Amino acid sequence: MAAGVAGVGLSWPSKLARSPNSILPPLSPSSRSSRRRVVKMALSVDERKKNFTLQKSEEAFNAAKELMPGGVNSPVRAFKSVGGQPIVFDSVKGSHMWDIDGNEYIDYVGSWGPAIIGHADDEVLAALAETMKKGTSFGAPCLLENVLAEMVISAVPSIEMVRFVNSGTEACMGVLRLARAFTGREKIIKFEGCYHGHADPFLVKAGSGVATLGLPDSPGVPKGATYETLTSPYNDISTVKNLFDTNKGEIAAVILEPVVGNSGFIPPKPGFLEDLRRITKENDTLLIFDEVMTGFRLSYGGAQEYFGITPDLTTLGKIIGGGLPVGAYGGRRDIMEMVAPAGPMYQAGTLSGNPLAMTAGIHTLKRLKQPGSYQYLDKITSELVQGIIDAGKRAGHAICGGSINGMFGFFFTEGPVYEFADAKKSDTAKFAKFFRGMLEEGVYFAPSQFEAGFTSLAHTSEDIQQTIEAAEKVLRQL
Ligand SMILES: Cc1ncc(COP(=O)(O)O)c(C=O)c1O
Q1: What is its EC number (predicted)?
Q2: Is the Cβ atom of 197 under 6 angstroms away from ligand 1?
Q3: Is residue 176 within 6 Å of ligand 1 at its C-beta?
Q4: For the chain, is the Cβ count within 10 Å smaller at the N or the C terminus?
């Protein structure tokens, strides 16, 4: 069965059976009551619109700017590319967020990915409270590490052994050192617009905040750190072949987001991942899927399960921490056994594998594993994206986009979008107006044209309909 991507005209064989009348995944009693409560809260949205003000947010952010660079602890949060001041939040629950002025929003950022079962899930919170009674960090082995490791290994096809760290950035730093240690080579290929965290070797033609802020590279990154980083446009297999021809026997790894989320949502062309797998095998080069974003989001086994392509190594983050700070890298046992203390490649972490983060991850994955989860995500996300694209076209805008299960995106350009250069043709000024209009309607999208969006099991059909209606209204006014 083919899973289509609206607007970009691509399709792939889906590894997952899609039922036309997907049902909500079965809920436990506590999450059922949590979902009811969220729906009830959502009824107050119209009331909220009448009183929409961001005064407290503005005051808090002005104070923050004196305390922290740009007022934030991660650049994209600062709304630089969409104008205006960022919103300061007070609480989150399910698919909704509340700011410090009391405004309510339907959220499609999901804390940038982790919140796939909904924010502040009752079962996750209860499990965290139980774990916390025993302490917050041991700095020594704990049983919960075995449980999450076992879950990750049995879910993700490429992972036979795993190392937990504290962020996606750390996972990518670790995996790169490992790939270099294993192959004894130094060069890597990365793709334009893909983001692998903020470590020096990856800050070359990177996506996410680097793309959003229009920064070519970052000052402070020594030339030597990026000297061995070769780049290619995404979806461009002939450039990859040329790089292999001109750097014979020197390339340690090819690393990529198997579906790009950090320059907006860009899926691979049919055959692209297969070609990368074949070329890397032919050249004794390791293939690394950075699944920090796509892991457990495109399917329970990530993009590699969805597309049926098994890399040598994989990085994870976001969802496996259930909203607490976690990253991981894993892969073939023979490669992973190079990691210290099993082997000589050094990598360590004071808080790595801490019991709270392991607990949130375990309970998030347990929920995701229930039958129907990804069918439900597919149903609501494709409805959402198609609804927005149709509304955009009716209002006369150039717009394209798509989705795979819980990940989506749309661009204000005719398309097709196969690589970052295509994404950059988007009308970013129009996106900024759309974004701000949607905020006033109570919908929180990522504050950049170059970021993917995320849905969760807590998003209801009402959320989706309300979002499409708001988009229809805002798009007509642009
Ligand atoms: C694909 C990918 N890799 C790595 C990272 C870095 O993860 P973190 O922000 O947890 O350091 C991100 C963050 O968004 C990401 O999307």
Answers
A1: 5.4.3.8
A2: yes
A3: no
A4: N
The pLDDT tens digits for 416-473 are: 999 999 999 999 999 999 999 999 999 999 999 999 999 999 999 999 999 999 999 9
318 is catalytic: yes
How many Cα atoms sit within 13 Å of 408 on the Cβ side? 30
Q: What is the pLDDT of residues 22-41, one digit of tens each?
A: 334 444 444 444 443 444 44
The structure tokens 């119209």 sit at: 46
Cβ–ligand 1 contact at 169 (below 6 Å): yes
334 is catalytic: no
Write down the domain spans for the chain.
3-120+371-477, 123-368
Matching CATH number, 123-368, of 1.10.3720.10, 3.20.20.70, 3.40.640.10, 3.40.50.300: 3.40.640.10
Distance from Cα 454 to the centre of ligand 1, integer Å: 14
Question: Among the options 101, 290, 312, 378, which is catalytic?
Answer: 290
- Check if 262 has its Cβ closer than 6 Å to any atom of ligand 1: yes
Closest protein CA for atom 9 of ligand 1? 168
Does the annotation mark 427 as catalytic? Answer: no
| CB-ligand 1 contact for 314 (6 Å cutoff) | no
pTM, full prediction:
0.91
pLDDT per position as a tens digit, 157-209: 999 999 999 999 999 999 999 999 999 999 999 999 999 999 999 998 877 77
Tokens representing residue 282 in the block: 């032919």
- Alpha carbon 5 to chain centroid distance? 18
Give the list of residues 6+ apart from residue 156 with CB closer than 8 angstroms, or none.
291, 295, 301, 302, 304, 305, 314, 316, 330
Per-residue pLDDT at 6: 35
Percent of the chain's residues with pLDDT above 70: 88
Q: Is the domain 3-120+371-477 a CATH 3.90.1150.10 member? A: yes
Task: Determine which one of 93, 187, 318, 430 is catalytic.
Answer: 318
Strand, helix or coil for residue 127 = helix
